[in-house]
Amino acid sequence: MHLNLSRSSDVAFGLILVGAVLLLSTLSLSWYTTSLGSGSNVERETFSPTSLLLWGSQSGSAYSTPTAYSAIGLQGVAALYQTVAWLILTAALLSAIAAFLLVSKLGRTRRWLVPAILVLAVVFALAAPVYAELAQPGVICSGPPVGAPTAVAVSNNNSGSGPTCGWAILQPGPPGSGYIFNSANTPGPQTSFVGANNASGQPLVWGPSIGWYMALVAPALIGGGALLYFRASRRIAPP
């Protein structure tokens, strides 16, 4: 009987492990960025499954402030990324289990088991970025109209009909020295997952960043490993 994995199975094993590592690394990377301003005056907010980072530069003086989603009214986004994190962790765990089974006796005698687990891993892994893309614009203004010194996610229209969903970023500085962008009635992160706008002379750009893209690459690697293993397992004689 064949006790060593074929070359294809070795490659499959590597692809699965790399995919699992990439998935886990996305938990600490930015998935989404909003950027307001240009040149030496820029404000950015970056969303990740574990934290929100406010970054800014005013006349060459930069700052970086980790904060809670709830501090700027993004409770819905916080819940969304908690779900994203669980999807990623589940997919990574399934991938690790499949990689272990791939080199074990059980995985070699029940050749359907590893591909079946990897299919589930790919489904969970793909669900994370797809869910973020589809759900984020709808939940981005689901919190109460609260604010922070540098960012406000929801603005109040003072009409008695409740808060208007909008996006505003205030540049820090003495009173009257900064600017505010409010996209309550124009396109913004609350209207689409990716886009750009310009109001009051200040460009606003929003869209996915490296963590979201890596969350798409990882399931492709895991799926590739599953296909390679399925092909290689046909050439492995049962014990």
How would you describe this protein?
This protein is of the alpha+beta class and 239 residues long. It contains five helices and nine strands. The chain has a six-stranded antiparallel beta sheet with strand order 4-3-2-1-9-8. A hairpin with a 4-residue loop joins strand 2 (41-47) and strand 3. The longest helix has 28 residues, at 75-102. The radius of gyration is 23 Å and the shape is elongated. 38% of the residues are buried.
Q: What letter string, H or E per element, gives the SSE order?
A: HEEEEHHHEEEEEH
Shape: elongated
Beta-strand content bin:
15-25%
* Distinct helical segment count: 5
Spatial strand arrangement across the major sheet: 4-3-2-1-9-8
Q: Calculate Rg over CA atoms.
A: 23 Å
Report the helical percentage.
40-55%
Q: From the helix content, strand content and strand pairing, which structural class follows?
A: alpha+beta
What is the tally of beta strands? 9
- Low-confidence parts lasting 5 or more residues at pLDDT below 50? 1-5, 145-163, 171-183
Average of the residue pLDDT scores? 74
Question: Major sheet: size, sense and barrel closure?
Answer: 6 strands, antiparallel
CA distance, first residue to last residue: 5 Å
